[in-house]
Amino acid sequence: MRGKINKDRIIEESLNILNEKSPEELTIKELATRLDIKSSSLYKHFRNLEALHDLLSTYSLRQLLNHLNQSIQSLEGREALRNLFIAYRAFALQYPSLYEYTQNTSYWLSDESMAISNQIVELIESLLTNDKDAFDKIEGIRFLRSYVTGFVHLELHDGFGLDQAVDQSFLFGLDNSLELIHEQGKTQDRYERT
Fold first, then answer.
1. Where are the alpha helices (DSSP H) in 19-110?
2. Does the pLDDT of residue 19 top 70, yes or no?
3. Is the pLDDT of residue 64 over 70?
4. Alpha carbons 150 and 20: distance in angstroms, whole number
5. Is the pLDDT of residue 3 over 90?
6. C-alpha angle 139/110/26, rounded to 5°?
């Protein structure tokens, strides 16, 4: 695979490795072998394995943000929020290694990774605000994200042992979670009016 090595080729080949392995199994040596270069040549592009993980985290977070933004085009309120979390799950199931980079903050070294993560939170927060369902936006985001990431974790690790498909179960939990936040928002509104 000789040729000019740049950030895009490094990411592309890293993604090929990550289709087969987890981020913890990614090594500079294997990446260099696949790029047909010496390991030391990769250090011209990043200083160490941790910096490579940060590069891949930034890439993964950007991909997730794009995926989420596409999922809510032309939608508003609760329908947009529902679609966003369906897309969040779909991203995790389709790209488990990229998803790992979006969840494991120990890989994030740069301000860029944190900034993209904040954009994801702001996107969710804006949907809670538009839907007027947020009793406390951060609490609502944490609640929904905990449900989705917990469900996805079980799916990715074969935690649902029954032969029954889990899509309906996921939507049942998501819809009930959204309803709970909506009801909590109504309760909060009543307290604020009195």
1. 28-35, 39-42, 49-71, 77-94, 96-103
2. yes
3. yes
4. 23
5. no
6. 100
Give 117's contacts (C-beta < 8 A, 6+ positions apart): 61, 102, 105, 108
Token output for 143: 């609640």
Specify whether the CB–CB gap between 112 and 51 falls below 8 A. Answer: no
φ, ψ at 163 (rounded to 5°): -75, -10
- Here the tokens at position 36 are 């047909």
**Token couple for 142:** 């944490």
Residue 180 to residue 173: CA distance in whole angstroms: 10
Angle between helix axes 28-35 and 7-18 (nearest 10 degrees) is 110
- Per DSSP, the three-state class of 2 is coil
pLDDT for 2 beyond 90: no
Share of the chain above pLDDT 70, in %: 90
- Six token digits for residue 175: 């819809």
Cβ atoms of 104 and 50 closer than 8 Å: no
Q: Chain-centre distance of CA 119, in angstroms?
A: 12
User: Does residue 97 register a pLDDT over 80?
Assistant: yes
